[in-house]
Amino acid sequence: MDFDQQTKTENLYEELDFLNERIREHCEGIGQYDEALLNLGVQLGRLLERGSLSAHRPKVFIDTEERNMEFKRRWAPVRALEKSLINIFHLAVAEEINAQGSFCFSEDDEFSFYTTRLSDSAVEKFQLQILQSTYAEYESEITVEVELKGELGLLMGFHKLPARVRFMITDIDEERQEKVLTLPSGVKSIYGVLLSLNPDHTSLTTVQIEQLQQDIEKIEFSCLLKSKLVN
Protein backbone atom coordinates (compact mmCIF):
# COMPACT_ATOMS: atom_id res chain seq x y z
CA MET A 1 0.00 0.00 0.00
CA ASP A 2 1.52 3.34 -1.06
CA PHE A 3 1.65 6.38 1.22
CA ASP A 4 -1.36 8.18 -0.35
CA GLN A 5 -3.54 5.09 -0.12
CA GLN A 6 -2.52 4.54 3.50
CA THR A 7 -3.37 8.16 4.34
CA LYS A 8 -6.80 7.83 2.71
CA THR A 9 -7.47 4.64 4.66
CA GLU A 10 -6.46 6.27 7.95
CA ASN A 11 -8.68 9.28 7.20
CA LEU A 12 -11.56 6.95 6.39
CA TYR A 13 -11.25 5.16 9.72
CA GLU A 14 -11.04 8.47 11.56
CA GLU A 15 -14.27 9.60 9.89
CA LEU A 16 -15.89 6.27 10.72
CA ASP A 17 -14.84 6.64 14.36
CA PHE A 18 -16.26 10.16 14.41
CA LEU A 19 -19.58 8.99 12.90
CA ASN A 20 -19.74 6.04 15.29
CA GLU A 21 -19.40 8.43 18.21
CA ARG A 22 -22.13 10.70 16.84
CA ILE A 23 -24.44 7.73 16.31
CA ARG A 24 -23.78 6.53 19.88
CA GLU A 25 -24.49 9.98 21.35
CA HIS A 26 -27.66 10.31 19.27
CA CYS A 27 -29.00 6.89 20.28
CA GLU A 28 -28.21 7.44 23.95
CA GLY A 29 -29.76 10.90 23.78
CA ILE A 30 -33.14 9.65 22.56
CA GLY A 31 -32.97 6.26 24.27
CA GLN A 32 -33.53 4.36 21.02
CA TYR A 33 -31.23 2.17 18.95
CA ASP A 34 -32.84 1.82 15.52
CA GLU A 35 -30.35 0.06 13.25
CA ALA A 36 -33.02 -0.46 10.59
CA LEU A 37 -33.43 3.31 10.28
CA LEU A 38 -29.65 3.68 10.04
CA ASN A 39 -29.55 1.17 7.17
CA LEU A 40 -32.32 3.09 5.39
CA GLY A 41 -30.24 6.24 5.79
CA VAL A 42 -27.27 4.52 4.19
CA GLN A 43 -29.45 3.47 1.25
CA LEU A 44 -30.77 7.01 0.93
CA GLY A 45 -27.22 8.38 0.89
CA ARG A 46 -26.19 5.99 -1.87
CA LEU A 47 -29.26 6.92 -3.90
CA LEU A 48 -28.54 10.63 -3.53
CA GLU A 49 -24.92 10.07 -4.55
CA ARG A 50 -26.01 8.08 -7.60
CA GLY A 51 -28.42 10.84 -8.61
CA SER A 52 -25.94 13.62 -7.83
CA LEU A 53 -28.42 15.15 -5.40
CA SER A 54 -27.09 17.31 -2.59
CA ALA A 55 -29.87 16.71 -0.04
CA HIS A 56 -33.28 15.17 0.54
CA ARG A 57 -35.52 15.33 3.61
CA PRO A 58 -37.89 12.35 3.95
CA LYS A 59 -41.56 13.31 3.89
CA VAL A 60 -42.23 11.52 7.19
CA PHE A 61 -40.02 14.07 9.00
CA ILE A 62 -41.74 16.98 7.26
CA ASP A 63 -45.21 15.63 8.12
CA THR A 64 -44.20 15.02 11.76
CA GLU A 65 -42.80 18.54 12.09
CA GLU A 66 -46.01 20.02 10.67
CA ARG A 67 -48.13 17.99 13.12
CA ASN A 68 -45.96 19.13 16.03
CA MET A 69 -46.24 22.75 14.95
CA GLU A 70 -50.02 22.43 14.65
CA PHE A 71 -50.17 20.83 18.11
CA LYS A 72 -48.18 23.72 19.60
CA ARG A 73 -50.38 26.24 17.80
CA ARG A 74 -53.59 24.71 19.21
CA TRP A 75 -52.20 24.47 22.74
CA ALA A 76 -50.47 27.88 22.84
CA PRO A 77 -53.54 29.88 24.03
CA VAL A 78 -54.34 27.21 26.64
CA ARG A 79 -50.81 27.36 28.02
CA ALA A 80 -51.00 31.16 28.12
CA LEU A 81 -54.37 30.96 29.89
CA GLU A 82 -52.92 28.56 32.47
CA LYS A 83 -50.00 30.92 33.07
CA SER A 84 -52.37 33.85 33.68
CA LEU A 85 -54.38 31.87 36.25
CA ILE A 86 -51.22 30.77 38.04
CA ASN A 87 -50.01 34.37 38.16
CA ILE A 88 -53.33 35.56 39.60
CA PHE A 89 -53.21 32.87 42.29
CA HIS A 90 -49.60 33.81 43.01
CA LEU A 91 -50.64 37.44 43.53
CA ALA A 92 -53.50 36.48 45.84
CA VAL A 93 -51.43 34.18 48.05
CA ALA A 94 -48.44 36.57 48.12
CA GLU A 95 -50.67 39.40 49.29
CA GLU A 96 -52.12 37.23 52.03
CA ILE A 97 -48.61 36.33 53.18
CA ASN A 98 -47.78 40.02 53.38
CA ALA A 99 -50.91 40.64 55.43
CA GLN A 100 -50.89 37.57 57.68
CA GLY A 101 -47.23 36.57 57.82
CA SER A 102 -47.77 33.05 56.44
CA PHE A 103 -50.05 30.87 54.35
CA CYS A 104 -50.62 27.15 54.81
CA PHE A 105 -51.63 24.47 52.31
CA SER A 106 -52.45 21.17 53.98
CA GLU A 107 -54.52 18.01 53.63
CA ASP A 108 -58.20 18.75 54.29
CA ASP A 109 -60.90 16.24 55.10
CA GLU A 110 -64.67 16.33 55.54
CA PHE A 111 -64.34 17.26 59.22
CA SER A 112 -61.39 19.68 59.25
CA PHE A 113 -60.16 22.45 56.99
CA TYR A 114 -56.46 23.13 57.52
CA THR A 115 -55.61 25.12 54.41
CA THR A 116 -55.69 28.89 54.81
CA ARG A 117 -58.62 30.48 53.01
CA LEU A 118 -58.29 33.74 51.14
CA SER A 119 -59.70 36.78 52.92
CA ASP A 120 -62.85 38.44 51.62
CA SER A 121 -60.83 41.37 50.29
CA ALA A 122 -58.50 39.02 48.41
CA VAL A 123 -61.45 37.13 46.95
CA GLU A 124 -62.97 40.36 45.71
CA LYS A 125 -59.70 41.61 44.29
CA PHE A 126 -58.37 38.42 42.69
CA GLN A 127 -61.69 36.68 41.94
CA LEU A 128 -60.98 33.24 43.35
CA GLN A 129 -61.31 31.24 46.56
CA ILE A 130 -59.79 28.04 47.87
CA LEU A 131 -62.24 25.17 48.34
CA GLN A 132 -60.10 22.31 49.59
CA SER A 133 -56.67 20.71 49.39
CA THR A 134 -55.62 17.10 48.99
CA TYR A 135 -52.25 15.43 49.46
CA ALA A 136 -51.04 13.13 46.67
CA GLU A 137 -48.53 10.82 48.36
CA TYR A 138 -47.36 9.16 45.14
CA GLU A 139 -46.45 12.58 43.71
CA SER A 140 -45.41 14.22 46.99
CA GLU A 141 -47.45 17.31 46.24
CA ILE A 142 -50.64 19.06 47.29
CA THR A 143 -53.49 19.75 44.90
CA VAL A 144 -55.63 22.78 45.71
CA GLU A 145 -59.13 23.07 44.31
CA VAL A 146 -60.04 26.69 43.64
CA GLU A 147 -63.31 28.27 42.56
CA LEU A 148 -63.07 31.12 40.08
CA LYS A 149 -65.40 33.95 41.01
CA GLY A 150 -66.47 37.33 39.67
CA GLU A 151 -65.54 38.03 36.07
CA LEU A 152 -63.24 35.02 35.98
CA GLY A 153 -66.09 32.68 36.86
CA LEU A 154 -68.45 34.39 34.43
CA LEU A 155 -65.97 34.03 31.58
CA MET A 156 -65.58 30.31 32.22
CA GLY A 157 -69.35 29.87 32.45
CA PHE A 158 -69.88 31.84 29.23
CA HIS A 159 -67.63 29.34 27.43
CA LYS A 160 -69.37 26.42 29.17
CA LEU A 161 -66.24 25.52 31.15
CA PRO A 162 -66.17 24.59 34.86
CA ALA A 163 -65.38 27.51 37.16
CA ARG A 164 -63.26 25.21 39.32
CA VAL A 165 -59.57 24.56 38.66
CA ARG A 166 -56.82 22.75 40.53
CA PHE A 167 -53.40 24.15 41.34
CA MET A 168 -50.40 21.94 42.12
CA ILE A 169 -47.95 22.70 44.92
CA THR A 170 -44.54 21.06 45.23
CA ASP A 171 -41.63 21.04 47.73
CA ILE A 172 -43.94 20.19 50.61
CA ASP A 173 -43.21 18.87 54.09
CA GLU A 174 -43.96 15.19 53.41
CA GLU A 175 -43.99 14.23 57.09
CA ARG A 176 -46.61 16.86 57.98
CA GLN A 177 -48.18 16.74 54.50
CA GLU A 178 -48.30 20.50 54.26
CA LYS A 179 -46.65 23.53 52.72
CA VAL A 180 -46.27 26.64 54.85
CA LEU A 181 -45.24 29.79 53.00
CA THR A 182 -43.71 32.62 55.02
CA LEU A 183 -42.31 34.72 52.17
CA PRO A 184 -44.17 36.03 49.09
CA SER A 185 -41.46 34.51 46.89
CA GLY A 186 -42.58 31.09 48.14
CA VAL A 187 -45.58 31.19 45.81
CA LYS A 188 -43.24 29.82 43.13
CA SER A 189 -43.94 26.39 44.63
CA ILE A 190 -47.43 26.76 43.08
CA TYR A 191 -46.21 25.53 39.73
CA GLY A 192 -49.16 24.33 37.66
CA VAL A 193 -52.89 24.36 37.10
CA LEU A 194 -55.33 21.81 35.71
CA LEU A 195 -58.19 23.05 33.52
CA SER A 196 -61.07 21.19 31.94
CA LEU A 197 -59.96 22.47 28.55
CA ASN A 198 -58.32 20.31 25.93
CA PRO A 199 -58.16 21.98 22.49
CA ASP A 200 -58.25 18.54 20.85
CA HIS A 201 -61.49 17.59 22.63
CA THR A 202 -63.66 20.68 22.97
CA SER A 203 -66.57 22.32 21.20
CA LEU A 204 -64.75 25.65 21.42
CA THR A 205 -63.02 26.93 18.32
CA THR A 206 -59.42 28.10 18.34
CA VAL A 207 -60.68 31.66 17.99
CA GLN A 208 -62.93 31.26 21.06
CA ILE A 209 -60.08 29.81 23.13
CA GLU A 210 -57.81 32.66 22.06
CA GLN A 211 -60.49 35.20 23.03
CA LEU A 212 -60.92 33.56 26.44
CA GLN A 213 -57.17 33.65 26.96
CA GLN A 214 -57.00 37.33 26.05
CA ASP A 215 -59.88 38.20 28.38
CA ILE A 216 -58.28 36.39 31.31
CA GLU A 217 -54.94 38.00 30.53
CA LYS A 218 -56.66 41.40 30.90
CA ILE A 219 -57.95 40.34 34.33
CA GLU A 220 -54.43 39.21 35.25
CA PHE A 221 -53.11 42.66 34.33
CA SER A 222 -55.87 44.32 36.36
CA CYS A 223 -55.02 42.14 39.38
CA LEU A 224 -51.36 43.05 39.01
CA LEU A 225 -52.21 46.76 39.06
CA LYS A 226 -54.41 46.34 42.13
CA SER A 227 -51.70 44.42 43.91
CA LYS A 228 -49.15 47.13 43.19
CA LEU A 229 -51.54 49.81 44.41
CA VAL A 230 -51.94 47.97 47.70
CA ASN A 231 -48.21 47.42 48.10
Q: How would you describe the overall organization of this protein?
A:
This protein has 231 residues and is an alpha+beta fold. It has helices at residues 3-30, 35-50, 59-100, 120-126, 150-158, 206-230, and strands at residues 103-106, 128-136, 141-148, 164-169, 178-181, 190-194. Helix 3 (59-100) packs parallel to helix 6 and helix 5 (150-158) runs antiparallel to helix 6. It starts with a helix and ends with a helix. It has 6 helices and 6 strands; from the N terminus they run αααβαββαβββα. It folds into 2 domains: 3-52; 77-230, no CATH class.
Sequence-ordered SSE layout with sheet pairings:
Blueprint: H1 3-30, H2 35-50, H3 59-100, E1 103-106, H4 120-126, E2 128-136, E3 141-148, H5 150-158, E4 164-169, E5 178-181, E6 190-194, H6 206-230
Antiparallel strand pairs: 1-5, 2-3, 3-4, 4-6
Helix pairs in contact: 3-4, 3-6, 5-6
Keywords:
6 helices, 231 residues, elongated, four-stranded antiparallel β-sheet, 2 domains, 55% helix, alpha+beta, two-stranded antiparallel sheet
State the total count of DSSP E strands.
6
Coarse structural class: alpha+beta
Strand content: 15-25%
**How are the strands ordered across the major sheet?**
2-3-4-6
